[in-house]
Amino acid sequence: MDHYAEGAYFVVFDDGELIGCGGVFLNHRTGEAGLSWGMIHAQVHNKGIEKFFTNYRIALLKNRYPGKTYKIETSQHTFQFYHNRGFVTTGIILNGFGEGMDKYTMELKG
């Protein structure tokens, strides 16, 4: 993978407890950049952590890879969260992540 993609991946701790993770990527073959594998533990949702962490990663994308269109693949459960950050849905595959888990492809202009 080192030859095809670069990026960064972070873990989030709160008072010594692991509560989340997520990263950014640039695929050298396709030129795509975006957010990867972001998640915050459900017990700490709605405290602003997920917004702060996602906004941090978007700012990092814009700084590292300016002018690109940024991509994320997410589900029907979280697409609205990313829509609220400016991402636009460009495709939906029903059951794309498995039975009952639809795959939403979304993009944000950099």
Mean pLDDT: 92
Tally of structural domains: 1
Instruction: Give the structural class.
Output: alpha+beta
Radius of gyration: 14 Å
Written account of the structure:
By secondary structure, this protein is of the alpha+beta class. The protein has a single domain (5-109), classed as 3-Layer(aba) Sandwich (Aminopeptidase), CATH 3.40.630.30. The protein has two helices and six strands. The protein has helices spanning 49-64, 79-83, and strands spanning 5-14, 17-27, 33-40, 69-74, 88-93, 103-109. The chain has a six-stranded mixed beta sheet with strand order 1-2-3-4-6-5. The relative contact order is 0.16. The mean pLDDT is 92.
Notable characteristics:
single chain, 110 residues, alpha+beta, Aminopeptidase, six-stranded mixed sheet, 2 helices, 19% helix, 44% strand, globular
Q: Quick recap of the structure?
A:
The chain has helices at residues 49-64, 79-83, and strands at residues 5-14, 17-27, 33-40, 69-74, 88-93, 103-109. With 110 residues, the protein is of the alpha+beta class.
Question: How is the secondary structure organized here?
Answer:
Elements: E1 5-14, E2 17-27, E3 33-40, H1 49-64, E4 69-74, H2 79-83, E5 88-93, E6 103-109
Parallel strand pairs: 3-4
Antiparallel strand pairs: 1-2, 2-3, 4-6, 5-6
